[in-house]
Amino acid sequence: MLKPQEAQDRADALISQAKKAGADAADAIYVCDASTQVSMRLGNLEDVERSEGEEIGLRVFAGKRSATVSSSNMDPEILSALVGRALDMAREAPEDQYAGLAPEELILKSDPHMIDGDDGVDPDPEALREMALKAEDAARAVKGVTNSEGGGASAGRSIVALATSHGFSGAYSTSGYSCHASVIAGEGDGMERDYAYDSTRHFEDLDTPDMIGKEAGERAVSRLNPVDFKSGAMPVVFDPRISNSILGHFVGAIAGSAIARKTSFLLDAMDTQVFGDAINIIDCPHRKRGLRSKAFDGEGLPTAKTKLIDNGRLTQWIMESASARQLGLQPTGHASRGVGGAPGVSVTNLHMNAGSVSKDELIKDIKHGVYITELIGQGVNPVTGDYSRGAGGFLITDGEIGPPVSEITIAGNLKDMFLSLIPADDLEYRYAVNAPTLRTDSMTVAGG
């Protein structure tokens, strides 16, 4: 696998070729990945997979016309032909008045911020096999577990390099490790499944396989024998494992492209109260060992800590250069891209701040409600904010979490949900997007 500097040199070289061939502007992104995955099921080795690959993508501009090409073959002759093909395509493409590189005065000019994203560890397949086996064994050891979908462990490393014709050049490497288990509890028509996993940048930060497996087993058993309940409007409480999905809907609604196309339910929400005044939502691209930490975005702009929601108020859209130009604004350092196509946008390590009450206090006054641990389906309208998802979880009665419920539907509107959310004090940084336990009293629950 290449070193980051070698990857950076490849991107720089392709830009140099594009400029010599007559491109008015260009950018290139190089991505290299290598990973090993081991899967176990019922104590037996099921699969060992090793994958390695590299790709380079080139975007060229001929005036306001552009084209993107990519290749997984790094042969110099093939890359040279790639440049020529890209320019030919660009000259035939329609004009786009918003196309172009990021503003030159905004690109990162200092040394990239260190994100501590690569620990250099390379566990061998035997070590991963042992982790997968321990995770599955711990899950199967939980009383009530009757079958297994398997345990797994993986280790990988990625290198990303980006270069632009107006002066940006940078690269970084990240390592990644994960372990999971998925098991089934119960018999016949009463079977239930659940899972647990952990994913980290540094190997030493990974939860132990025993912890992961035990959690998977206990979650599956806790879902046995679901009960019926009375439908209607009631408080809904989201477990932290899935409460972060609500932030995902928020991010989609503040993407510059959605605002420019007028396809967002938050279209007119800038500088208004979107969440309760105790809520802040923050993007932290420089968090040490963060799952999505990076010093620069997909256009070479510096990344920075951003408070997207400040005491409940929406402070900004997240924009790459094209949508920023369309909106008459500046890009925000949130551009993301692969080797094909123009940049889109994404957040990095996003979180909602913790509240001031415990989970127990959050639910103690709920006479009849549900505690949601699983969401199913994609029933969200990004234009209106209407929300309807299949779900599973547990009944809340007189302030206590009780028996499981399954095959229910929760429905509401994201605008109302956002304003009514109350966070508990149990925020943990386990995923790329994190939120504490969340309660909303603005939903309807049916089924069960």
TrEMBL record:
Residues 231-447 form the Metalloprotease TldD/E C-terminal domain. Residues 33-90 form the Metalloprotease TldD/E N-terminal domain. Pfam families: PmbA_TldD_1st, PmbA_TldD_2nd, PmbA_TldD_3rd. SUPFAM superfamilies: Putative modulator of DNA gyrase, PmbA/TldD. Residues 122-224 form the Metalloprotease TldD/E central domain. Transmembrane segments: none annotated. InterPro entries: Metalloprtase-TldD/E_C (IPR045569), Metalloprtase-TldD/E_cen_dom (IPR045570), Metalloprtase-TldD/E_N (IPR002510), PmbA (IPR047657), TldD/PmbA_N (IPR035068), TldD/PmbA_sf (IPR036059). Belongs to the peptidase U62 family. This is TldD/PmbA family protein. It comes from Parasphingorhabdus cellanae.
